[in-house]
Design goal:
Blueprint (H helix, E strand, L loop, with lengths): L4 H10 L4 E6 L8 E5 H21 L7 E5 L5 H12 L3 E5 L9 H9 L3 E4 L13 E4 L26 E6 L10 E5 H15 L9 E3 L7 H4 L1 H6 L4 E3 L8 H9 L5 E5 H11 L3 H9 L2 E5 L5 H9 L4 E7 L3 E5 L12 E2 L6 E4 L21 E7 L16 E12 L2 E7 L3 E4 L4 E4 H11 L4 E7 L7 E6 L7 H19 L14 E3 L16 H7 L1 H10 L3
Parallel strand pairs: 1-10, 3-4, 3-5, 5-6, 9-10, 11-12, 12-13, 23-24
Antiparallel strand pairs: 1-2, 7-8, 13-14, 14-15, 16-17, 17-18, 18-19, 20-21, 22-23
Helix pairs in contact: 2-3, 9-10, 12-13
GO biological process, one term: fatty acid metabolic process
Pfam families: AMP-binding, AMP-binding_C_3
Organism: Pholiota conissans
Length: 545
């Protein structure tokens, strides 16, 4: 079966006169962009591919070898080097900026994939001296390299369907190390030809112009050329992942963005601004599509999107399996419910870890549509993860829970670990329902929150207030009383171990200080527990259950 570039290169040529990328060239205060056409990208890809043929051969490397590509994730050349290495038959393993902060992370992940060398951005020059690999600096000024001209590149190699195409990594760590996530050629073709065409719902006659979602070292942004290139769409680079309202407005007015692609926490920030800023509201409503992913929005935010006519779609994806479910832009009233993408052979199977019938408390009755499901990707599905990272012999379960809200429609219900065991008998507790309720009834008081208490006497709520200074004891007491008062109706439908009913159970911290995932900005429950272990131990010792 073909290399994933066998499909991409003809598409790049088909849309050669269109703009493929708009690169950020300004400052956060004065944003500006530079356009790169499809043809310019092809020319740069070819000359960089030609440049690397001899140096890599002289280093003893062979096509199909894994080569670490250590990039900042912020440069146009990052994308060029990725596709250029793939073009001459190598397997790029994307190494990101965060790895420089982890001891031995780079050699560790390369040893897992049998990586043979490292091509590195000069930014990491001080970090490569002690690495036991052949290390070669990248060329970031492409003007130093001649165009391909009359030279010929080797044929794109004929590869098996399950051969490695590109290797990425999880955004979190296991045992202090990121986990390699290999993507096969079959997976990459599925991502571009089946999954992403279902995400863009603006029509074939409109060029989608969408922002990047984080670093070019991570799968969502690194593969944009693959999945946007098939249909002639365009990527606009942002100055940073969590852009502010001013840059959001400039992306639309100056860069022509008509499709916003955001993690749910980022969209929530824009919604909060749009509630009092008519220009931001008009900008959101004027977009062809607003896609959010990474976590569920607060119910009040979803209701606001519907009420204000924002053409929003929810999308579920993982690094391992790509996009699997999406909502219908023409039926925003169904948010956050999604359907399986047509052509994706995934299944929703009854959850084995959190079945409705074994849930304690009133959590079961709070499920609007009934049963809980795991997302299962069969081994023969084109987007099934590489065999080395599957968690079942017959396929892979993503670890996320879904609630069936209507036949064929499913709402994201969080990670399996959103269901903790707590209380006297270590009964199940749905932390997400509690967090959602706090964010709904206290939307004017609380910016974010997380529930702790796994295998503890009771739950503890960490809150980041919108306005209260955590060092002002009197104000903190008033805030806790307000939270408890507003949350009280929730307690009436919950078993005792699920209830938040004492000021002792609330810990107020400064805004932005709860630990979050790097890319999505979701609060990390276990990390929050670890960071505040001492105060939690004091609280747990006083809780009566």
């Amino acid at each position: 079966m073909p290399h994933f570039l066998e499909y991409l290169l003809p598409a790049l040529n088909k849309y050669s006169s269109r703009t493929l990328l708009k690169l950020f060239t300004g400052t956060p205060g004065a944003p500006s962009w530079k356009s790169v056409t499809y043809q310019m990208f092809i020319d740069d890809l070819e000359r960089v591919a030609a440049h690397w043929i001899e140096p890599l051969k002289e280093a003893g490397l062979q096509p199909q070898d894994v080569i670490g590509l250590w990039i900042t994730g912020e440069k146009y050349t990052d994308l060029i080097h990725l596709y250029a290495l793939a073009r001459i038959g190598y397997v790029p393993q994307m190494l990101n900026k965060a790895m420089a902060t982890l001891h031995d992370a780079v050699p560790s992940v390369l040893s897992m994939t049998q990586g043979k060398a490292i091509l590195y951005d000069p930014f990491f020059s001080s970090a490569i001296a002690s690495l036991p690999y052949k290390c070669i600096a990248l060329v970031n000024d492409l003007n130093l390299l001649p165009l391909l001209g009359d030279r010929k590149l080797p044929a794109i190699p004929d590869v098996p369907d399950d051969a490695l195409g590109v290797i990425f990594h999880t955004s979190g760590t296991t045992g202090g190390r990121p986990k390699p996530v290999p993507e096969t050629h079959k997976w990459l073709r599925c991502q571009a030809q089946v999954q992403w065409p279902a995400i863009w719902q603006g029509g074939d006659d409109v060029q989608g112009v969408v922002n990047n979602l984080g670093s070019f070292a991570n799968v969502g942004s690194a593969t944009t050329v693959s999945y946007l290139g098939w249909s002639g769409q365009c990527l606009v680079q942002t100055s940073k992942p969590d852009i502010d309202a001013n840059e959001f407005m400039a992306l639309i007015a100056e860069a022509g963005m008509n499709w916003a692609f955001l993690y749910a926490p980022w969209l929530s920030k824009l919604i909060n601004i749009a509630k009092t800023d008519e220009k931001v509201l008009a900008a959101l409503k004027g977009l062809v599509e607003v896609t959010y992913t990474g976590a569920a929005l607060n119910p009040s935010d979803e209701a606001w999107l519907v009420e204000n006519g924002v053409k929003a779609t929810a999308m579920y994806a993982t690094t391992e399996s790509g996009c699997c479910l999406v909502s219908d832009v023409n039926n925003t009233a169904a948010l956050p419910s999604m359907h399986i993408i047509k052509g994706i052979n995934v299944k929703l199977i009854p959850a084995t870890s959190s079945k409705k019938e074994v849930l304690d408390g009133d959590a079961a009755s709070r499920l609007q549509g009934g049963k809980l499901f795991d997302l299962f990707v069969p081994a023969d599905a084109p987007n099934c993860p590489h065999p080395t990272i599957r968690n079942r012999p017959d396929g892979h379960i993503t670890g996320d829970l879904f609630e069936e809200t209507a036949p064929g429609m499913y709402a994201f219900r969080g990670r399996n670990d959103d269901w903790i065991r707590t209380g006297k008998h270590y009964s199940f507790c749905d932390t997400k329902s509690i967090e959602d309720n706090i964010l709904h009834v206290c939307s004017d008081l609380v910016g974010n929150c997380v529930v702790a208490g796994h295998y503890k006497p009771g739950i503890v709520l960490f809150v980041e207030p919108l306005f209260v200074d955590p060092s002002d004891n009197d104000a903190v007491v008033i805030l806790k009383e307000q939270i408890l008062e507003r949350h009280a109706p929730f307690n009436t439908n919950a078993f005792i171990h699920e209830r938040l009913q004492s000021k002792l159970q609330i810990v107020v911290v400064h805004r932005g200080t709860l630990p979050r995932t790097t890319e999505k900005g979701n609060i990390r429950r276990k990390a929050a527990e670890d960071e505040h272990a001492e105060i939690l131990d004091t609280i747990y010792a006083q809780l009566k259950v």
